[in-house]
Amino acid sequence: MPFGGYGIVSSMTPGSLRPRVAIVTSNFWPEKTGIGQVVTEFAQYLAGRDIEVHVATGMPYYPEWRVYPEYRGKMRCRERLGDVTIDRAWHYARPAPGALSRIAHEASLSLFSIPNMMRALRGADAAYIVSPDLSHAFVASLLARAARVRQILMVQDVMPDAAVELGMLRNRLAIGSARKLARSTYARADEILTLGEGMRRRIARETRLPAKISILPNTIDPDELVTGEGQGIPFRQRFVADGMFAVVHAGNMGEKQDIEVILRAALRLRECRGIHFYVFGDGARKGFFLRRKAEWELENVSHFPFQERELLPHMLHGADALIVSESPKVVDIVVPSKLPTALAAGAMVIACCAEDSEARRLVVASGGGIIVPAGDDEALCKVILQLKNGEIDSRSYRAAGRAYSVEHFERRRTYEPQAAAIHARWREQAVMRE
């Protein structure tokens, strides 16, 4: 089922004879981007494979860093999303968070989530614990060990490395404490799953058992992102003037995304009336983005909130150029979750990323886009102009990216080994109990 089509429906039969897993995560549906979307898709897949799924999470807040209005004032609540049970706990969240705000967020989430974690872990055959909220994952790992539940750590960002290298965490005492939390959490995990080879190597340096680290990439639904006649038209009809060359950036507007490179490129191209930049999203850096846009009087840049999920394939495919930008400091601490989706939608990707980054490896391997150095707005403008003037034919890039993403990131092929392993262990335990 496409992410945008999720509904809260109760269909789980209590006490049914099937495996049960706990998922402990700081981000989950109805968050529209990043880890929340990825973990929701994973939970839904497991539930669709006759596995009882119980999620312990916080109130939705990302990427705005503001608790969603319908959840404000609640200390806890329970919901159902298809066959998934969700228990939520209150936590602190503040827009444009600094270091202290992030610490307060993690500390409050970790403390108030303990009852929900225990509830999810009770009777579970396995626990999937999601990081980067490191203290939240640490507490969950302690509880899973106490409950004697097999724990699989899903590392979506390598922490605290990501926070340190992006300048979000500078205090030496805090950094040292976070590294100890990370090593302790890695040590307790029976298995560690991460997104790419560079992330796997970095985590391996912090654990004595690197063999327990595997790669589980983010996934795509080829049917949701199917390309063909009419794809992209709804997006262009709603947002793009006739004859305009549309340069799009969609997703989180945070520290990792280097959204300023888009503004600098727009400044260089402000006299090119046939080019317009469309930025869709929210995040910790949105305020900076809007202030700088106003200061530079960039009439060739428009900002919009997140759109409905059904429009996303049309937006990605309908853009004349899709920018995936990363800070020059982002190398092997994260893999952008939107990149497999963009490739599968047949987007014309321009990736502004570091030479040794996971994003660059993926774009090069797929043949689905053009690389420019991270932060290089001059090189970015050059590629945009070449595409606009027809000097680069985007059709081959679009086709190659689509084919590669479907082959390597299709949801069933990626997640089925996890579901099969859960069923196999559950059957083994059932035989032992008999």
Highlighted features:
434 residues, alpha/beta, Rossmann fold, 2 domains, 8-stranded mixed β-sheet, 6-stranded parallel β-sheet, disordered N terminus
Low-confidence stretches: 1-16
Oligomer: single chain
Continuous helix count: 16
End-to-end distance: 37 Å
CATH class of the largest domain: Alpha Beta
Evaluate the radius of gyration. Answer: 22 Å
Chain-averaged pLDDT: 90
Output the CATH homologous superfamily of the largest domain.
Glycogen Phosphorylase B
Shape: globular
* SS-based class: alpha/beta
Per DSSP E runs of 2 or more residues, the count of β-strands stands at: 14
> Secondary-structure element sequence?
EHEEEHHEHEHHEHEHEHEHEHEHEHEHHH
**How are the strands ordered across the major sheet?**
3-4-2-1-5-6-7-8
The largest pleated sheet is described as:
8 strands, mixed
Portion in beta strands: 15-25%
Could you tell me the CATH topology label of the largest domain. Answer: Rossmann fold
The CATH architecture of the largest domain can be given as 3-Layer(aba) Sandwich
How much helicity do the residues have?
40-55%
How many structurally independent domains? 2
3D structure, described in words:
With 434 residues, this protein is of the alpha/beta class. It has 2 domains: 3-219 and 411-433, Rossmann fold; 233-408, Glycogen Phosphorylase B (Rossmann fold). Helices cover 41% and strands 18% of the residues. It has 16 helices and 14 strands. It has an 8-stranded mixed β-sheet, with helices on both faces. Helix 2 (99-112) packs parallel to helix 4 (134-146). The radius of gyration is 22 Å and the shape is globular. It starts with 19 loop residues before the first strand and ends with a helix. Residues 1-16 have low confidence and may be disordered.
